[in-house]
Amino acid sequence: MVALESMFHPPPDVDARVELDGVGWADYERLVAVRGEASVPRLTYLGGGWS
């Protein structure tokens, strides 16, 4: 399991892209709050409901 700290402050030689599956909107908002004003990783929500 990756520590949240390492997700939000990756080493400079590591791609700052993190893909999470099954994350709801409330979880996404918590990640945004934890990340704060940092520009990496860039967060995008591509969620929606499943039928």
Give a written overview of the molecule.
By secondary structure, the protein is mainly α. The chain has one domain. Helix content is 31%, strand content 0%. The protein has 2 helices and no strands. The protein is globular. The model has no long low-confidence stretch (mean pLDDT 74).
In oligomeric terms, what are we looking at? single chain
- Please indicate the count of domains: 1
- Identify low-pLDDT runs: none
Q: Total number of β-strand segments? A: 0
Average pLDDT for all residues: 74
Question: What global shape is seen?
Answer: globular
Largest sheet geometry: none
Rg from Cα: 12 Å
> Which series of helices and strands comes N to C?
HH
End-to-end separation:
30 Å
Content-based structural category: mainly alpha
Helix content: 25-40%
Count of runs of 4 or more consecutive helical residues: 2
Estimate what percentage of residues fall within beta strands. Answer: under 5%
Summarize the structure.
It contains two helices and no strands. It is an all-alpha fold.
Question: What topology does this entry show?
Answer:
Elements: H1 4-8, H2 25-35
Write a concise keyword list for the protein shown above.
mainly alpha; 51 residues; globular
